[in-house]
Amino acid sequence: MTDKVLSGWGLAKDKINKLIFECETFEEAKIVAENAENRSDMKNINIASKKPYYSKTRHYVQIKTKEDYPSWYEAGYFRK
Questions:
Q1: How far is C-alpha 52 from the chain's CA centre?
Q2: What Å distances lie between residue 34 and 18, 37, 54, CA to CA?
Q3: What is the pTM of this model?
Q4: How confident is the model at residue 28, as a pLDDT?
Q5: pLDDT at 43 over 90
Q6: For residue 68, is it within any domain?
Q7: Taking a C-beta distance cutoff of 8 angstroms, is the pair 1, 19 a contact?
Q8: Cα dihedral sign for 54, 59, 65, 70?
Q9: What is the domain count for the chain?
Q10: Domain around 19
Q11: Other C-beta atoms within 10 Å of 31: how many?
């Protein structure tokens, strides 16, 4: 997914900030995706079965886990 707010500055200066959330199951991935859909700062949300490739010259990629951001893995955490 793309973080619209953090793209273009800080560690992502002049780049698109991509977030990858590692999930153990498809159900867990659906929860993370639904939480992302409920945030206005996230776009291009998708579920992939393999780690996606992003060009290092165009993208700043962050790989996150349940230990990093446990709230993202809780169903309905960012519900509007």
A1: 12
A2: 17, 5, 22
A3: 0.91
A4: 98
A5: yes
A6: yes
A7: yes
A8: negative
A9: 1
A10: 2-73
A11: 18
